[in-house]
């Protein structure tokens, strides 16, 4: 069963990968607008209050208003930067980039997903500061695939949830582990067109594994102590 897709072609695989990436970027758009509106509301409110202060000539509180303006401007600037950085992290060209900077961007960008923002606590343990040299879209797709599946699994449940993202260097490999309180339901999750969710192609994990194989990396998914571990391994030199 191939559903019309040539899954042996890297060109075809990349087309599917970017459809997934665009869909996830679009899914974060309502949250992006929500967060942007929060900062714009703050700007409008402080501008109105400042106008009233100036008209009444009670200027002693002006530094407070400028501080609040700076906070709102900083928030808007960061949102715009996140969108621009995503373009870089979707590049198919070989790039040399900082793991620290990537993880910081990844965490901040996903705050635009409102479920992630309000119900997920992401604990990051970063034990390496080595740069990676590969096409950034590979890491972006694979890490987003893991997080996206976790959020879908948790979104119908109440409460807040702790996730862990651990990044370590083991010999000549960089290992990313996304650890979640979810249940592994599929016996062969890397087989194409396998999914427990309706209206899903069941290709995400398969595509991630294919991408990583192009840089001699690997993708794994396994259960341990009532948790699910999603593991990405990328060689430092590939």
Gross geometry: elongated
Provide the CATH superfamily: Histidine kinase-like ATPase, C-terminal domain
| Helix amount | 40-55%
Q: What is the terminal-to-terminal distance? A: 32 Å
Question: Which CATH C-level class is it?
Answer: Alpha Beta
* CATH topology assignment: Heat Shock Protein 90
Topology, number of strands: 7
As for the number of domains, it is: 1
| CATH architecture tag | 2-Layer Sandwich
Compact overview of the structure:
It comes from Desulfonauticus submarinus. Helices cover 51% and strands 21% of the residues. The protein contains seven helices and seven strands.
Task: Offer a few descriptive terms.
elongated; 7 strands; two-stranded antiparallel sheet; alpha+beta; 238 residues; Heat Shock Protein 90; single chain; 21% strand
Give the arrangement of secondary structure elements.
Elements lengths: L9 H18 L1 H28 L5 H28 L5 E4 H12 L3 H6 E7 L4 E4 L1 H19 L6 E10 L2 E8 L23 H10 L4 E7 L2 E9 L3
Parallel strand pairs: 2-4
Antiparallel strand pairs: 1-3, 4-5, 5-7, 6-7
Helix pairs in contact: 1-7, 2-3, 3-4, 6-7
Explain what the structure shows:
- The structure is a single chain.
- The protein contains 7 helices and 7 strands.
- With 238 residues, the protein is an alpha+beta fold.
- It has a single domain, classed as Histidine kinase-like ATPase, C-terminal domain (Heat Shock Protein 90, 2-Layer Sandwich), CATH 3.30.565.
- The chain has a 5-stranded mixed beta sheet with strand order 2-4-5-7-6. Strands 1-3 form a two-stranded antiparallel sheet.
- Helix 1 (10-27) crosses helix 7.
- The radius of gyration is 21 Å and the shape is elongated.
- The model has no long low-confidence stretch (mean pLDDT 85).
């Amino acid at each position: 069963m191939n559903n019309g897709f040539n899954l042996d072609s890297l060109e075809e695989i990349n087309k599917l990968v970017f459809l997934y990436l665009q869909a996830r970027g679009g899914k974060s758009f309502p949250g992006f607008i929500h967060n942007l509106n929060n900062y714009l509301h703050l700007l409008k409110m402080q501008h109105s209050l400042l106008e009233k202060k100036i008209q009444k000539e009670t200027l002693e509180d002006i530094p407070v208003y400028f501080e609040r303006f700076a906070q709102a401007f900083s928030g808007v600037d960061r949102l715009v930067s996140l969108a621009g950085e995503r373009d870089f992290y979707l590049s198919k060209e070989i790039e040399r980039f900082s793991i620290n900077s990537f993880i910081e961007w990844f965490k901040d960008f996903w705050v635009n997903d409102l479920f992630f923002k309000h119900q997920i606590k992401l604990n990051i343990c970063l034990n390496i500061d080595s740069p990676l040299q590969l096409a950034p879209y590979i890491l972006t797709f694979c890490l987003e695939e893991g997080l996206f599946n976790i959020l879908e699994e948790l979104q119908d449940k109440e409460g807040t949830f702790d996730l862990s993202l651990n990044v370590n260097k083991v010999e000549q490999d960089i290992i990313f582990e996304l650890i979640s309180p979810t249940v592994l339901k599929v016996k062969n999750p890397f087989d194409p067109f396998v999914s427990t969710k309706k209206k899903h192609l069941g290709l995400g994990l398969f595509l991630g594994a294919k991408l990583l194989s192009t840089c001699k990396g690997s993708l794994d998914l396994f259960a341990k102590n009532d948790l699910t571990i999603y593991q990405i391994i990328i060689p430092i030199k590939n």
